[in-house]
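Students often ask why we bother encoding 3D structure as a string. The short answer is that it lets us treat folding as translation between two languages. Here is a chain of 237 residues written in the first language.
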Amino acid sequence: MAADREELPVIAVGYTRVSTREQAEEGVSLTAQRRRIEAYCEAKGWELRGIIEDAGHSGGKLDRPGLQSIIEACRRRTVGVVVVLKLDRLTRSVKDLGFLVEDVFGRCGVEFATIEDNFDTTTANGRLVMNVLASVVQWEREAISERTRIAMAEKRRQGKFVGELPFGYDLAPDGESLLPNADEQQVLRRIRVARTRGQSFQAIADRLNRQGVPTKQGAAWYSTTVHRAAARAAESA
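And here it is in the second language, the structure alphabet:
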């Protein structure tokens, strides 16, 4: 019976991601990532059930549709290993990496492999290398963010609006100030009422999705986007 278990194929699922800026770069394009993952799984003898992609999404947060599908597959125990080309395709945050590896992959018995970084989470060495690489990735991201903050501060000093429009507001004709969006302000009021009644951010997100209420970008709601929308609206009020 043990021999039968050994012959069962390892079920793999691939994950690819590009940000808008990276889509034109062949080295990290979705097509290039897909080819490498397919070849890697074939060489390992793993059964690749599919490759889930996130096109035009930053690696700085977890509320990406494709990544949420990966997390759900892990929790349903329908996948044995998650394969990515590079660690930064999955996440650029040490905190988020820890959540994925410990609370998702580890808790669900799912292995994790990166092709170019050449490690997996089944060994102590692999976990050590992963943490070191993740720290470097986050340092790079924070260095870029620091330079961006300096540039944005200068634009704000000049009275210009910069950054992503907060949910509940639109940009005024002068291109510098914000105007309340009536429909979105109504959604924010519903969020605040739901929170005073003790509802979780996830429960609120689920209800908004069922009712077909879009986010500012026209995407689905997650607990993180509900929290961020409410927080940013409070800052902008």
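Translate back mentally: Residues 124-157 form the longest helix (34 residues). Keep this in mind for the problem set.
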